[in-house]
Amino acid sequence: xxxxxxxxxxxxxxxxxxxxxxxxxxxxxxxxxxxxxxxxxxxxxxxxxxxxxxxxxxxxxxxxxxxxxxxxxxxxxxxxxxxxxxxxxxxxxxxxxxxxxxxxxxxxxxxxxxxxxxxxxxxxxxxxxxxxxxxxxxxxxxxxxxxxxxxxxxxxxxxxxxxxxxxxxxxxxxxxxxxxxxxxxxxxxxxxxxxxxxxxxxxxxxxxxxxxxxxxxxxxxxxxxxxxxxxxxxxxxxxxxxxxxxxxxxxxxxxxxxxxxxxxxxxxxxxxxxxxxxxxxxxxxxxxxxxxxxxxxxxxxxxxxxxxxxxxxxxxxxxxxxxxxxxxxxxxxxxxxxxxxxxx
Length: 344
Hints:
Layout: H1 6-13, H2 17-25, H3 32-45, H4 51-57, E1 63-68, H5 74-89, E2 93-98, H6 103-115, E3 121-123, H7 132-138, E4 143-146, E5 157-160, H8 163-175, E6 181-185, H9 191-207, E7 216-218, H10 223-234, E8 242-245, H11 248-260, E9 270-274, E10 288-291, H12 294-309, E11 317-319, E12 322-325, E13 342-343
Parallel strand pairs: 1-2, 1-3, 3-4, 4-5, 5-11, 6-7, 6-8, 8-9, 9-10, 12-13
Antiparallel strand pairs: 10-12
């Protein structure tokens, strides 16, 4: 017999999981109509909340923890805003921590969130799952991974499939005539760093471009490594004519050093960034990006965490990515050339 979950109740009632959770927990921030529909769905489905989860809710704090990898990263700033708003709508306040891309800082924040007895934690994990990440599992604290995962840990997650977007970016640059594409990679200690590098390697092989290992610089998802990566790649005997930065913050560092060196983006060198930050479209030239929805990721992460708090085990979600072509990856001879892709 398939267990009925709060997600089933929400679907039958025609409300969000957050609303169903508020109704079942007695939160007054719900309309009479919503309460009536949820109660009717509970009766029809004979829904019985997980006993252990119900016991935990009796001492709940009405707070969740969110631990991001680097609060200075525009992607994680947007994620934090989305999570905070979605959680607040569900009756929870959010305690925010910043790991600063350091495992020891991650562990300190997770230990603090555990001691504050938050009802659940959303985390973009670093490392191999040891330390305080392991404590979340052994203590059975409701947890959802966001953006990143840890190999071997069976934790619900919401992540992005980088393959399509990176393949589109490489094909776009190849069609524009670039044969040497420099890649500023994220750290291989993170799942996103490994996955995006693997996707880039496959895309380069698939287009028959140079697989010179010197064209890859391994950064750390921080702006300084984006600048360092550009500097190192442009010092090569045969430097790249195009660059792909594996996240927004390293792209910011790349833009800064290119301006300092007097290299005209979109004319002297092409540049594409992973992550579509709102103000990237306002640059001159506007920055081509590999886009994935941070708003959708944040909303889904909160929805999943509410299900875990209720005792359910939701399926992990993988969101798509796509290339958005703007002026930074055009060339003087073939503007915005390449496959037919989204532009704005």
